[in-house]
Every structure is written in C-alpha cells, then in structure tokens.
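Query structure, 453 tokens:
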C-alpha cells in the first residue's frame, strides 16, 4: 500500500505524513537545499525570498524538526534535511517515471479544453455590492445551476470553503493582512484593485481625476468601518501621508457611511467600483491596493467551472468599472498592464492558479500532485473501494475521490474505472501502481529515518 504508514501515523502523534504535506513547501526546501541560498532559490522558482523563507519556517514548525542550519552567511542541510532532500529528489525522478508510464505529458494546456458540467447547485460568498450583478451574470452563463449566496467575511468565508460549507468565494485580501488559509486552497487573482479616497461630490477636492495628496485631507473628519483591517487601511494610508486621521465616525453600515460622506460630514477610503450617487472618488499618491480573488472547493468545483466563473467575474468587474465610475474606467484603460483580462477582455481559461508565491517553473506544478495523491490512489487500488479507502485513511470519502481525480488530471490518464458497484484498475492504473507502491515505501522509510534522527 502506498505510504500507508505515513498516512495512518497522522492519528498517532507521529510526524505529519503524506496526509499533511504541502508540496509547495517541500519544493521551496528542495531548491534552497540544492542552491544553498534563499535568494538563488527564489530566482530559480520565480518567487520572492520572503515567500521562500515563510515556506521553510512553516515546514520546520509543522514538522517540529530543523531541516536547515542558517547563519547570516551560509545555509546547509541538517542530517534530517539531507535525508529529506534525497527523498524529494528521488520523488521527482519517480514522478517522471509515472509520466512515462502513462505515456502522456502532465500539462493541462496540452489537452483540449473540457466543456464544464455545471452542478445543480453552487454556494457562493461575495461582498454585498457585487452580489446581485454577479449572480445575474452567472445565471445567464449557467442557467441550469441554482446559486445560493452568502455575504463575504474576510477569513470566515475561506474557512467555510475548507470545511465544505461553501463552493466558491469571491473575496478580497489586503496586503498587510494576508489570509493564511488561502494557501490551503486553489485560488486565482481577478485584479489588484487600487483604493481611492471617497469625497462628497461637492467637496472642494472633488474636481479633477489626477492623483491628489492625502495630506490635503488632514483636517477632515473621517468615517471608518469597525473592522480593524479596514480601519488600519485608513490609518496606514494617512500615516504614510504624514498625519493621523481624525476619526469621528465608526459604522459598519454602508448606507450610513455614504450618508456621512455625501453630506460632507466625513471622508473615507473605498473601492473605485462603488456606486457613485453623490460621491466622488479620486486616486491619491501612494494609494494601497487590495487583491480580489476567486477561491474554490476542489472537491466540488473543477477547472472548466473555475474558468467559467472567472469569465463571469471579469464581466462583472468590467461592467462595474465602466458603468459606475467613468473616471476609474479611464484609469483602468490608462494602465492596461495592471488590469490584464479586464481591458483586453481575454477569457483567461488557461490562466495559472495564483497565490502569493506560486512559482513560474513547470516542475512546481507537477509537485502539487505526486506522493500525497499517489498514496490515496494506492489505498483505493488495494481496497478497490473509495469508501473502504477513506475509512482506512481516516478522511471523508469525497476527499479520497478528489485526490485520485486530481492525480488523473495531472497525469492526463484515467487510472480507475468507477461504477456504483465496483472500482477496477485501468491499463494506465496498472502501469502506474508499481511505481506508486515503490515511491510510497521509500517515503515511509524516509519518515522513519527522519524520526529516528
């Protein structure tokens, strides 16, 4: 059985096994251990050195073991690090053997696009002012699907995805308050949206569309949202302009915020796609941005559906920018490189899944679905049942099904025949299984050697 011991050790307090491996973290470790430099590893993977360091720290903290000895001048693997490096390099070779065994390249872009089969129902969370328009666009694109909507919450919505209570989240993330749980989910960036200052349309600074200095508003009263992240956004922006904002109003009610600003009683910061009414939004020097993203539950949503939802989100964003705030739409048109997919209206079906540190080299994509998913496939191949495999591993049956399906997509071949009564190996599955068994046994031995010190 592939990695059986590492899978079941999870419940006995041992070092985390295959069930708990994040292959992006292992990839970062492998490249740093080979390059003996975080900076060189970052250049090789096409990500920033801080992201590499975060992944290394997370790996060591999660496994409660030191893998690298680091000083200000040098990096070298510990004994456990050397053992892990050899195992990881071996797994890379084994992955290539698996690719050869299936006879197809594991590159989704090499395969013809798959028409999405939309489920009967999808549960979506998004922020309030996007709800009606985005849902309307989605209903036009997939009239056979019923969308159940919920309000977006900064971290709670992402956790609901992980828990299986949501299928899709269209949310946002501020640069100084990352949502760490997003690293555990597939997600794509829609756009990095600048934050503008919000004024009454009759305010003396409401004339013009060029960037103003936020310092010109140092004597104004400010209204802020009680969410500490949104309040910090205002405070950080004002501090960067050399003053502390005079916060005289705190409310989470959108209607109340608009009324205060429209009346001239306060100013604030907001998204430039917000409805205008009696408001004027202007860019300002040093304005921050927020990342709008789509995250999804991979057990319920696959690639073609993601591509369809992303197209709907682009349609929504394009219409919002163009119809709600003409000055922002002109700003978008003047900065096409920052709004790819919005100004050029491409559908982005082949867009890569993005996170803060997703590498640009193809090997990293392959690493995301090697040993862990092979382990699940091996247990299913031995028990010939997804239900029995799930019971043996100690995870829900949909998790096993999702893992095996992801492995099949990555290899570009079906490994199992499934029916309501039985599961059997395909020809490709029989070719893959010996390599997978060998790989799982090697991984078990690696865990034992690392644990033994």
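Result returned for the query:
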């Amino acid at each position: 059985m592939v990695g059986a011991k590492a899978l079941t050790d999870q419940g006995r307090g041992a070092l985390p096994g295959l069930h708990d491996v994040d292959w992006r973290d292992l990839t970062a470790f492998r490249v740093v251990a080979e390059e003996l430099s975080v900076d060189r590893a970052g250049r090789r993977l096409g990500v920033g050195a801080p992201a590499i360091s975060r992944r290394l720290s997370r790996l060591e903290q999660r496994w409660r073991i030191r893998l690298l000895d680091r000083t200000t001048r040098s990096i070298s693997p510990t004994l456990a690090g050397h053992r892990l490096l050899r195992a990881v390099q071996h797994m890379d070779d084994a992955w290539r053997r698996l690719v050869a065994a299936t006879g197809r390249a594991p590159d989704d872009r090499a395969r013809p696009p798959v028409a999405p089969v939309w489920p009967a129902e999808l549960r979506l969370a998004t922020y309030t002012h996007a709800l009606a328009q985005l849902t309307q666009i989605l209903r036009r694109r997939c009239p056979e699907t019923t969308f159940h909507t919920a309000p977006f919450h900064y971290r709670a919505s992402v956790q609901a995805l992980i828990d299986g209570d949501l299928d899709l989240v269209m949310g946002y993330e501020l640069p100084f308050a990352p949502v760490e749980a997003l690293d555990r989910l597939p997600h794509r960036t829609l756009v990095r949206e600048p934050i503008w200052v919000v004024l009454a349309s009759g305010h003396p600074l409401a004339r013009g569309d060029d960037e103003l200095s936020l310092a010109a508003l140092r004597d104004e009263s400010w209204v802020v949202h009680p969410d500490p992240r949104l309040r910090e956004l205002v405070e950080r922006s004002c501090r960067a302009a050399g003053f502390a904002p005079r916060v005289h109003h705190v409310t989470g009610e959108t209607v109340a915020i608009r009324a205060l600003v429209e009346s001239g009683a306060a100013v604030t910061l907001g998204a430039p796609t917000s409805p205008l009414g009696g408001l004027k939004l202007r860019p300002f020097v040093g304005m921050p941005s927020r990342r709008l993203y789509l995250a999804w539950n991979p057990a319920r949503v696959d690639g073609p559906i993601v591509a369809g939802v992303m197209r709907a989100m682009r349609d929504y964003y394009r219409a919002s920018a163009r119809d709600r705030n003409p000055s922002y739409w002109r700003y978008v048109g003047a900065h096409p490189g920052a709004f790819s997919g919005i100004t050029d209206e491409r559908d982005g079906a082949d867009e890569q899944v993005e996170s803060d540190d997703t590498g640009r080299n193809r090997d990293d994509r392959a690493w995301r679905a090697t040993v862990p998913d092979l382990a699940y496939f091996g247990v299913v191949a031995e028990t010939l049942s997804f239900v029995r495999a799930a019971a043996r591993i100690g995870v829900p049956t949909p998790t096993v099904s999702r893992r095996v399906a992801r492995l099949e997509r990555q290899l570009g071949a079906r490994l199992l025949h499934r029916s309501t009564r039985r599961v059997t190996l395909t020809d490709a599955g029989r070719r893959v299984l010996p390599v997978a068994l060998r790989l799982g046994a090697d991984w078990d031995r690696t865990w034992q050697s690392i644990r033994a010190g």
